[in-house]
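Hi W.,

Here's what went into the run:
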Amino acid sequence: MPRRAAAISAMPRLRRLTRAELPADTAALARWLIGKTIVHDPSSADWGDAAGAGGRLAGRIVETEAYLPGDAACHAFRGPTRRNRALFLERGHAYVYFIYGVSFMLNVSGGAAGTGAGVLLRAIEPLDGIAAMQANRGTARLRDLARGPGRLARALQIDFALDGIDLCGRGARLWLGNAVRETGAIGTSLRIGISKDAHRPLRFFERGSPFVSGTRRLNGG
DNA sequence: AGTGCGATTGACT
DNA sequence: GTCAATCGCACTA
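Here's what came out:
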């Protein structure tokens, strides 16, 4: 394994969120996740040359969308398949899928086992492993590293290998962490990029955050 | 086995 | 603002 320079991390120590802390209602979960952290600790074999301390990639969640049971826009709407089975796991599991032949998307499953609901993570504010995220994304602009769900997954090195893992599992390499600072006011809007059940106000974001995707109109000015 | 399309992105006018 | 890329999946037959 290559030697690497010790990196100084200004990151506060993160605490793993337990499943009991996650709201059982998926729309509530989507709102609650704003301000929390998402952390990926890839295996050392997957560390890039620009990896941060311990190879860690982490960010503050600033934008989410909820996909609910009975919601035609939810991938679980037509029942379980091989692709969407992770949505039916108890809340707090990762659902990863590939879209447009281009992008991976990272979701957190919601509700009780068998429910078929989840929360799409649409944007994060980069916190740790920023140099690695810049390498993963091919840009240095902090604001562009993870603004949008496909970019978020690319920055965090998310792919099918993480589909179905328990984010609340002991020692999980992808996990949810506590908020590192006070969370700002939370805005609500329609979900982005869907055609079915498009009228539901199930997108949540931290108001004023430059790391949020979407238009000025959706983001309330 | 073939078809249509999607919870997007990046390049371009 | 517009638009093509690209492929896994669900659906039809």
